[in-house]
Amino acid sequence: MSAESQPDLKDCGVIYVAKGARSYIEEALESARSVRKAMPGLRIALFTDARPEDVEGPVDIILPITSTRSGFSSKIDPLLHTPFERTLFLDTDVHMAESCADVFAMLERFDLCVSQDPWRGSYSWETVPFAFATTNTGVIAYRLTPAIKKLILDWGELHTNEYAKFQSNDQPAFRKVLFDSQVRFLTLPPEYNLRTYHPCMLGG
Predict the structure, then answer these.
(1) What is the distance between the alpha carbons of residues 99 and 46, in angstroms, rounded to a whole number?
(2) Cα separations (Å) of 197 from 118, 175, 200?
(3) CA–CA separation, 189 and 128 (whole Å)
(4) Number of C-alpha atoms within 13 angstroms, CB side, residue 49?
(5) The pLDDT value given to residue 118
C-alpha cells in the first residue's frame, strides 16, 4: 500500500476468543505476539473465561465471555461486543506474517471481509447453491453495522437451533446467513488465510 492509502488505525483492533483449556489462551497469546510484531500500534482484545490476572501477554483489553456456547461457535457472541469500530477477528491458531492494514482500509467500503475456505465443498443437507463459496470463519474483518449485527445474531440462532445437530462446525450456518443477507462483503485473496498443510498457490 502507498502511504496515501494507509488507513488510520486508531479505531481498529484485533480480537480473539479463548475459552476452556489453558492451551487455547496460550495459543491466542502466541498469535497476538505475531500481530504485535507485524502491526505494533494495533490494539488487541481477548475474550476469555480465564481470570485477567492469569493472562500474561501482548493484550490491551481482556473481556469476559458470558455466553454458554462452546466449541467452534463460542466465537459468535463475542463478535457483537467488540470494543473497536473496525475489527479483525482471528482464530487462536492464526499467525500474522506481515501488516494487513489494507484489510481495515477495505472496511471503509465493505461491512465485512472474509476468506474462502480452501476445503471446497458442502454438506448434503445444505440449501445454499454450490457456487456460493464456503467462507472460513477463522479470519473475519467487519464493522458492527446494523446489518452485521443481524448477520451475527442470525448465524448464532441458525447454528444452535438447526445446524448444530448435523455439524459442530459453525461455517455452514455462516454461509447460509451470508447468502440470505444484504451485507456488502469482500472475499479476500487466499494469502489472507493461507493454509500450508495442503497444496496452495499465492499471487504477488
Answers:
(1) 19
(2) 11, 24, 9
(3) 22
(4) 13
(5) 78
Helices (H) and strands (E) in the chain, counts: 4, 7
Show the cell assigned to 115: 476468506
* C-alpha–C-alpha distance, residues 15 and 202, integer Å: 26
Per-residue pLDDT of 30-42, as tens digits, reads 999 999 999 999 9
Supply 108's cell numbers: 471503509
What is the per-residue pLDDT across 135-165, written as a single tens digit (0 to 9) for each? 999 999 999 999 999 999 999 999 999 887 8
Are the C-beta atoms of 87 and 142 separated by less than 8 Å? yes
Q: What are phi and psi of 91, to 5 degrees?
A: -60, 155
Question: pLDDT per residue over 51-97, tens digit each?
Answer: 888 888 899 999 998 877 666 668 999 999 999 999 999 999 999 99
pTM reported for the whole predicted model: 0.90
Q: Which helix (H) or strand (E) holds 135?
A: strand 135-143
H or E, element range at 149: helix 146-161
Q: Which three cell numbers stand for residue 74?
A: 463460542
Q: Dihedral sign, CA of 83, 52, 19, 31? A: positive
Between CA 10 and CA 102 the distance in angstroms is 14
